[in-house]
């Protein structure tokens, strides 16, 4: 880097400050400051986390006795459908990408803001209305076909509730695509001079891998949902078997997005853990390049494993074999990360504060989620546990023990940076 370039970099303000400073009112405006937007995402999504938790509590209350004595069957179906949709599309996905990503990526790469600040603000402001819309579906007959919304069940269930569910998820998906474009352009174009990709903080590698997945996968989900909406409202038969449609095509399109969605929810958290552990272990990260490139490997492999959700959907044996092997291979880059984290804390001077405890809790919980993932990747085992609570437990180890523990670690770790307290 030349002296002139260094000088130019030093003169840049750290971020684009709000005119008139930042006070609490700023957080209710169409602010284009990436830090304000990051906080807006985190606070909004945390609110929906509480909503999703209340829905889960209602589900468990109903399950406390064998009879349906707390809510009706229709409401119960609505409760678990909206619980899953809220937790995935209104809490974890926007919190780890829009929340932590917006706040941290520009700071970590030395950019003044995201590449497209107004697009960034627009992506955030699509989330609250879509969330409120989804919750309002309880007033018109809630969607009850599960968060996967498989036809023909979703076509025969409550039409108004299902239509609202589709519209809400479409809006949230659009917001996610906008955020992904913004992250990719920001990371490629706006790094401070001298920061090559191989010198970039690991969280930025994770956000790059995540954004690629969101950009490739989400449009396919949008396509599936638009076709489903046609079947539901106009009466076409893309997926409706009574009109000659094929419901399995919906499953392929849905999981082409929704398997990568798991990595959209966990890769940024991997990145956060890779930033947090070295600080509190007071040792540099072990295996920087291995962690960085394994994010890209997970991202690529994540795109070619979707039919492992469909081993009981009549898929031919050779196809099952292909998806089983690909799925098991994902354990390799994931294992590389886990062992690199363990090597990072090995022999370190650990500071066991809240961030570190959550980060280490993340590792143990996520390993259970990951190993049960290898178990269900195996066709003969999966056929027996398909649609059972084994799968429910597996996904909650990954998303709660994994993503949410990691987010708590991140909140404790960066809280002073975010609030000045
Ligand atoms: Cu999957």
Secondary-structure topology with pairs:
Layout: H1 3-11, H2 34-63, H3 73-109, H4 117-125, H5 127-140, H6 153-156, H7 159-189, H8 202-234, H9 247-281, H10 288-302, H11 317-329, H12 331-345, H13 354-377, H14 379-385, H15 389-419
Copper (II) ion is lined by residues 259, 262, 305, 308-309.
Structural overview:
This protein has a single domain (31-419), classed as Cytochrome c oxidase-like, subunit I domain (Cytochrome C Oxidase, Chain A, Up-down Bundle). The radius of gyration is 22 Å and the shape is globular. With 421 residues, the protein is mostly helical. Residues 9-14 have low confidence and may be disordered. The protein is built from 15 helices and no strands. The site of copper (II) ion has 5 residues, from helix 9.
The major sheet is characterized as:
none
Per CATH, the architecture is Up-down Bundle
Q: Strand tally, please?
A: 0
- Secondary-structure-derived class: mainly alpha
CATH 4th-level superfamily: Cytochrome c oxidase-like, subunit I domain
Distance between the termini: 35 Å
What is the string of helix and strand elements? Answer: HHHHHHHHHHHHHHH
Helix coverage percent of residues? over 70%
Can you list the ligands bound to this structure? copper (II) ion
């Amino acid at each position: 880097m030349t002296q002139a370039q260094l000088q130019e970099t030093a003169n840049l303000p750290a971020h684009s400050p709000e005119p008139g400073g930042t006070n609490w009112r700023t957080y209710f405006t169409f602010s284009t400051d990436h830090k304000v937007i990051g906080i807006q995402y985190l606070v909004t999504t945390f609110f929906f986390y509480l909503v999703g938790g209340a829905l889960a509590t209602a589900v468990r209350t109903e399950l406390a006795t064998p009879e349906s004595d707390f809510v009706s069957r229709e409401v119960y179906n609505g409760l678990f459908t909206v619980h899953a949709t809220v937790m995935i599309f209104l809490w974890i996905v926007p919190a780890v990408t829009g929340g932590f990503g917006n706040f941290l990526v520009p700071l970590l790469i030395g950019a003044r803001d995201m590449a497209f600040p107004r697009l960034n603000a627009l992506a955030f402001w699509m989330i609250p209305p879509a969330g409120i819309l989804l919750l309002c579906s309880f007033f018109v007959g809630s969607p009850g076909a599960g968060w996967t919304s498989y036809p023909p069940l979703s076509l025969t269930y409550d039409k108004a509730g299902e239509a609202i569910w589709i519209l809400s998820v479409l809006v949230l998906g659009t917001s996610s695509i906008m955020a992904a474009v913004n992250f990719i352009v920001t990371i490629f174009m706006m790094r401070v001079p001298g920061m090559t990709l191989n010198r970039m903080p690991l969280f930025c590698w994770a956000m790059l891998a995540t954004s690629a997945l969101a950009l490739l996968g989400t449009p396919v989900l949008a396509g599936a949902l638009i076709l489903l909406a046609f079947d539901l409202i106009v009466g076409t038969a893309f997926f409706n078997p009574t009109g000659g449609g094929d419901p399995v095509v919906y499953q392929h399109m849905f999981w082409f997005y929704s398997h990568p969605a798991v990595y959209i929810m966990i890769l940024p958290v991997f990145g956060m853990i890779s930033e947090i552990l070295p600080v509190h272990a007071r040792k540099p990260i072990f295996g920087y390049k291995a962690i960085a490139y394994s994010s890209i490997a997970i991202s690529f492999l994540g795109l070619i494993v979707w039919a492992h959700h469909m081993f009981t959907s009549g898929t031919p044996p050779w196809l099952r074999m292909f998806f089983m092997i690909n799925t098991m291979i994902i354990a390799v880059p994931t294992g590389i990360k886990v062992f690199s984290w363990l090597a990072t804390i090995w022999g370190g001077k650990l500071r066991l504060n809240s961030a570190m405890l959550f980060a280490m809790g993340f590792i143990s919980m996520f390993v259970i989620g990951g190993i049960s993932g290898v178990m269900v990747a195996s066709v003969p085992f999966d056929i027996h546990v398909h649609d059972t609570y084994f799968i429910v437990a597996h996904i909650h180890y990954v998303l709660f023990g994994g993503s949410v523990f990691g987010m708590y670690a991140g909140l404790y770790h960066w809280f002073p940076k975010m609030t000045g307290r």
